[in-house]
Amino acid sequence: MDDNDLHTRISALVDEEHKLRHGAAGPEEAKRLQELEVALDQCWDLLRQRRARRSAGEDPEGAQVRPAGEVEGYRQ
What we know:
Elements: H1 3-21, H2 27-55, H3 68-72
């Protein structure tokens, strides 16, 4: 997945998140929102990894999606 693909994926996830936040809020929607938040964090983390690797003169394709528990544990 290249940077453009990541941006497209992030946009799609954000659109879905906005629709869910402005719609009915049942348990299924709450679960999906949580999944979207994790997926967004993973996408943003992957994009940052790719940029960092590129800045360091490394191949951005070496970046990998980190586990949900890892990206969710980052301090903001």
